[in-house]
Design goal:
By secondary structure, the protein is of the alpha/beta class. The chain has 3 domains: about 110 residues, NadA-like (Rossmann fold); about 120 residues, Rossmann fold (3-Layer(aba) Sandwich), CATH 3.40.50; about 80 residues, Rossmann fold (3-Layer(aba) Sandwich). Strands 6-5-7-9-8 form a 5-stranded parallel sheet, with helices on both faces. Helix 11 links the parallel strand 10 and strand 11. Helix 3 runs parallel beside helix 4 and helix 6 packs across helix 15. It is globular.
Length: about 350
């Protein structure tokens, strides 16, 4: 079908379903998907909003799989969560599965008492990982509240095991002034993560070796080049970027932080952004009085899997196609960690 016809059919189906349907679109979705959604935002805010909707029976999450899972964890029993493409995964989330994590946890707790180590799982992870965190007195964090989550954990233990994003964890540790020699990386492919038992004992933060494909494409050379070309520009990047990129940027923060940073900037500002290209393009289109540019054109291929065709297919097969199912035990353990985050 032509784009116009697809959009018309989607709008018609939305009208038919009315308040029983809510379409959530993540910041990194392409513009035509965002325009058809009911809400746009980051993954946790969208999930929480949908769960509070008293009329929504069907929640269609236009994002990647772990985001739809988070919505399903928070959803009420009468709500069905669907994703337009069940193959829209997450590079980072796939770097830590339950088998790898269970093995790592057993190895760490052979060296350090379990009572001394608090697991923190980033929202960008699958439900089994979140459930592990819930069962072991840990907490879930977002890129917005990672520092608060670290402080919460240090009030309850001596060490943090942070997964699956090494860079968000390291940047958070740097923000809190944790010495670099007290942060070690855990490589799940190696015994004891590639660390000596002594280094595990001395470490305050153990960082899982995982990363975001989108945000690790940015380099300090790109930042320096942009600063030379646009000396009056401000450079803002996501905390999933490497620590060297963060250190030479003017500001760092979550997707919501970046959106607000652009919103609050005065007219005539030049802002260079290190995050997913669809968000950067949309911010540029929404703020014609400002110059908004990408640090580099970095596309998330999994976010891009959501399109008009599979969104229409999902709406035409509402409650049936690509339904997100999570075992009750996994859902309840995940909720424990989520609820701890909500108390922060």
């Amino acid at each position: 079908m032509e784009t116009i016809e697809l959009i018309q059919k989607i709008k018609k189906r939305k009208k038919e379903l009315g308040e029983r349907l809510v379409i959530l679109t993540h910041h990194y979705q392409r513009k035509d998907i965002v325009d058809l959604g009911d809400f746009c935002g980051d993954s946790f805010a969208l999930s929480a909003k949908a769960a509070k909707d008293k009329n929504a029976q069907y929640i269609v999450f236009c994002g990647v799989h772990f985001m739809a899972e988070s919505a399903a964890i928070l959803a009420k029993s009468n709500q069905i969560v669907q994703i337009p493409d069940s193959d829209a995964g997450c590079w980072m989330a796939d770097m830590a599965d339950s088998v790898m994590l269970d093995k790592a946890w057993k190895e760490i707790t052979k060296v350090v008492s379990q009572s001394k180590i608090i697991p923190i799982v980033y929202m960008n992870s699958d439900a089994h990982i979140k459930a592990h965190c819930g069962r072991n007195n840990g907490v879930i964090c977002t890129s917005s509240n990672a520092p608060e989550s670290f402080e919460w954990a240090f009030d309850r233990g001596e060490k943090i095991f942070f997964f699956p994003d090494e860079h968000l964890g390291r940047n958070t540790g740097n923000t809190l002034g944790i010495p670099k020699n007290e942060m070690i990386v855990w490589d799940p492919a190696k015994p004891f993560g590639g660390n000596s038992q002594d280094s595990i004992i001395k470490a305050k933060v153990i960082l899982w070796k995982g990363y975001c494909l989108v945000h690790t494409r940015f380099t300090t050379e790109q930042v320096e080049q942009m600063k030379k070309m646009y000396p009056d520009a401000k450079i803002v990047v996501h905390p999933e970027c490497t620590e060297d990129v963060v250190s030479v940027s003017d500001a760092v923060g979550s997707t919501s932080f970046i959106v607000n940073y652009v919103n609050d900037a005065p007219a005539g500002s030049t802002i260079i952004i290190g995050t997913e290209i669809n968000l950067v393009k949309r911010l540029g289109a929404e703020h014609r009085d400002k110059t908004i540019m990408p640090l580099k054109n970095s596309l998330c291929p999994n976010m891009f899997k959501i399109n008009l065709e599979n969104l229409l297919y999902t709406l035409e097969n509402i409650g049936v196609a690509n339904v997100i199912g999570i075992r009750n035990s996994i859902k309840e353990d995940s909720k424990l960690a989520l609820n701890r985050m909500l108390t922060l």
